[in-house]
Design a protein that fits this description.
The chain is an alpha/beta fold and 250 residues long. It contains twelve helices and seven strands. It has a five-stranded mixed sheet with strand order 1-7-6-5-4, with helices on both faces. α7 packs across α10. The N and C termini lie far apart (45 Å).
Length: 250
């Protein structure tokens, strides 16, 4: 009997835990908005209906919402910023690829291949550079060199790899729009916190003539991972516009 009661209590505790609302930092909660969409009844990517009646994902609902408000919307999560980081520090991380065809491992601060002095020198150059011109020059340099996994794989938004995606119209508009201070801070933060591995960066970046906002997409009760919370706090602390957009059922 005691064993049976213990099992029941355990199940109740697990059920309560699963239903408990995630407690987020106050600043994160203050930067959260909700939008609504009709639920399809399906699970996974076809959870909602878009305005045209087609079944679509939570991310597509948010993309549609901001496009209808006149914003440009660009996918910009982990693989995007990982590729941007590699391009930005291409000369420091992969000097040998510029002249040969060998594959190289991703930079790891533990192996001391690159010094902080080298990274800071490049960050100071970026601070004074035209970001769009700088990244495009890095792309050209890479294309004359050899294969790098983080630039030549990782399909993004239907593009076969990040390098091709970075040359698309939407990314080029972003590179022309983002200011040097924000761009540099994101690179610095990637180095300091995640060992050059930008896990947790927001799903989208949106912009219009007046503003640029980093957007994290969630359903009503979806929780944020610790890395996503940390990135949100970083963006808010540095006065980089940031929002969590939760999609709830109509």
């Amino acid at each position: 009997m005691k064993k049976f009661l213990l099992i029941i209590l355990t199940l109740i505790c697990f059920a309560s835990y699963g239903q408990a609302k995630q407690i987020l930092p106050a600043k994160i909660e203050e930067n959260t908005i909700t939008i609504t969409a009709k639920k399809t009844g399906d699970l996974g990517k076809n959870y909602f209906y878009c305005l045209n009646g087609n079944k679509c994902s939570t991310e597509q609902i948010v993309r549609e919402y901001y496009k209808n408000k006149g914003y440009q919307v660009m996918r910009a999560e982990y693989s995007f910023w990982k590729g941007i980081f590699v391009l930005s520090f291409l000369d420091e991380l992969y000097p040998q690829t510029l002249n040969n065809k060998s594959e190289n491992k991703f930079f790891d601060t533990e192996n001391k291949n690159v010094t902080n002095e080298e990274l800071n020198k490049k960050l100071n150059l970026i601070k004074k550079s035209n970001i769009q011109l700088f990244i495009n020059n890095q792309i050209t340099k890479h294309e004359k060199g050899s294969y790098i996994r983080w630039l030549d794989e990782w399909e993004i938004e239907g593009y076969k790899n990040p390098t091709v995606y970075f040359k698309s119209t939407i990314v080029q508009e972003f590179l022309a729009k983002i200011n040097n201070k924000t761009f540099r801070k994101i690179l610095e933060h990637t180095i300091e916190i995640y060992n050059s591995n930008p896990v947790g960066t927001p799903d989208y970046i949106i912009w219009n003539e007046k503003e640029m906002i980093f957007i994290e997409v969630k359903r009503k009760k979806e929780t944020l991972k610790p890395e996503q919370i940390e990135w949100g706090e970083f963006l808010i602390k540095n006065k980089i516009p940031y929002q969590i957009v939760r999609v709830i059922e109509k």
